[in-house]
Structure formats: structure tokens, C-alpha cells
Amino acid sequence: MKKPINGTTMKFVSTLGLLLACAAPLVAFAETNVKQLAQSCTACHGEHGKSLNPVWPNLAGQKRDYLEKQLHDFKSGERKNPIMMPFIQTLSDKDIEALAEYYSQLN
Q: What is the pLDDT of residues 7-37, one digit of tens each?
């Protein structure tokens, strides 16, 4: 025989449902935000991280750690590229992590 649902259980289920409902728009915002960040990359690296110009590397499918390191190296000046500098200087560490994750997931 099933136990009846008490008030505490109902509050828990209601709260959990509310939290899940609120989380979905946040996930969608994060995805939109990284796609907005990636828009500045598309001119050289292609819309889906696949460059049409052999001078610029493909970003799609690269390892996340590799991409993150390269972006940090550009930002710190350890790796120099005058084309990248204006784009990279405005990125936060979280932006760099998000872009590296985004491009590593593309094929």
C-alpha cells in the first residue's frame, strides 16, 4: 500500500518543480550567450568553427583545454596576433571557458 503524500513531500516536489522550471531559461540564456560571443569568431573561423580560409585554423572539434590555453595565451600576450587582440581583450575567463567548450563540441 502506498503512503499518502504529506505536506512536507508536497512542498519539496513543488519547490523542485519550480527550480527546474527556472533552470531551463538559464541554460537557454547560457547557450545564447556563448553563441553571441562566437559571432565575433565567425568572420575568420567560420560559422560553425570551420574556416573557409586555410590561413585561419578550424576551431570545431579541437580539444577544450587546447582552445582555452590558446585563448588565454592570446589574452596575456604570450601568443601574439594583431588580428586576435581586439577580440580577445574583452573576454572574461568565463567567456574563454564557454567558447572553448562550445567549439570543442562542434564537429
A: 666 666 555 555 455 544 444 444 558 999 9
State how far the Cα of 95 lies from the Cα of 13, in Å rounded to an integer.
34
Q: Is the dihedral of CA 5, 8, 14, 16 positive or negative?
A: negative
What percentage of the chain has pLDDT greater than the value 70? 70
All three cell numbers of 88, joined, read: 580577445
Domain total for the chain? 1
Residue 98 belongs to a domain: yes
**What's 75's domain CATH number?**
1.10.760.10
Alpha helices (H) in the chain, listed in sequence order:
7-38, 42-45, 64-76, 85-88, 93-105
